[in-house]
Amino acid sequence: MELSKRLNAVASLVTDGYRLADIGTDHAYIPIRLIQTGRIPGAVAMDVNRGPLLRAEENIRLYGLEDKIVTRISDGFSALKKNEADSAVIAGMGGPLTIRILRDGAGTVTALKECILQPQSEIEKVRAFLLEEGFFFLSEDMVEEDGKYYPMMKVKPPETGYNVEEANRVKPPESARVAYSGESNADGWNEAELRYGKLLLKDKNPVLREFLEREIRIRIRILDELKNNTSEKAAMRRKELEKELEIAEKGMDYYAV
Question: How many Å apart are CA 92 and CA 83, to the nearest integer?
Fold first, then answer.
């Protein structure tokens, strides 16, 4: 089975030999591919809706992997037993839903060795949540497919439970931190790092650079279109765009050194 560029990038972040929990599996493409290539020994493919799970089961039978992949109806991690998986994939969902799944499954998540996350929206809020709750960023990647850009990350859950009541609260960027095994990043993550990914910027990811260049071009063009508009609404929009442009340009600064 061949995967799309996005799903292939997500799958590539899963550590070889780990048992996988695919949350919101849909067609079960990722676990099927990882087992076909011998990278993982087995998987639990879960989805909250029966329809997608039926499609997953059809694909699993098609490739003769019924003995390797178990399917379950599950809202997030609810049907996954503790210590049943080493790695979890949550891909293709909105940022708030990703946070909710991690929050509600806190007891199970802390027993995992890694989580592979590919939120489709509000990435900054997801990163802030992860940092505040003590997840450790192991790696980040970004791919472009059909004109869309997809950032993703591999994180290690905190070894102890995190504050589930505060899971949806996003604190200012300067308070964001990386914490793991008693170590912390005293410098925190700045606005550009929180929005675009500290590891992506540090590694000078070429796809992120393309994305930043596009973001800057778009905002400069819109600001030029608004320059003669004197309405209050336009003034507010210009202020937002100028701030967004400033953060994007700070991101580009990483590529200049």
Answer: 24
Q: In what order do the strands lie in the sheet with 20-23?
A: 69-73, 43-47, 20-23, 87-91, 114-118, 148-156, 136-145
At 206, is the secondary structure helix, strand, or coil? helix
Task: Please answer whether residues 110 and 157 qualify as being in contact, where contact means their C-beta atoms are separated by less than 8 angstroms.
Answer: yes
Residue type, 254: Y
Q: pLDDT 10s digit of each residue in the chain, 257 long?
A: 889 999 999 999 999 999 999 999 999 999 999 999 999 999 999 999 999 999 999 999 999 999 999 999 999 999 999 899 999 999 999 999 999 999 999 999 999 999 999 999 999 999 999 999 999 999 999 999 999 999 999 999 998 666 544 433 434 344 344 333 333 333 489 999 999 999 999 999 999 999 999 999 999 999 999 999 999 999 999 999 999 999 999 999 999 97
Between CA 194 and CA 200 the distance in angstroms is 11
| CA dist 97 → 91, 103, 120, 217, 241 (Å) | 11, 10, 10, 30, 27
Evaluate if pTM is beyond 0.85: yes
204 phi and psi angles, rounded to 5 deg: 55, 50
Q: H-type helices in the chain, by residue range? A: 5-12, 29-36, 50-62, 95-104, 106-109, 123-132, 191-196, 198-202, 206-226, 232-253
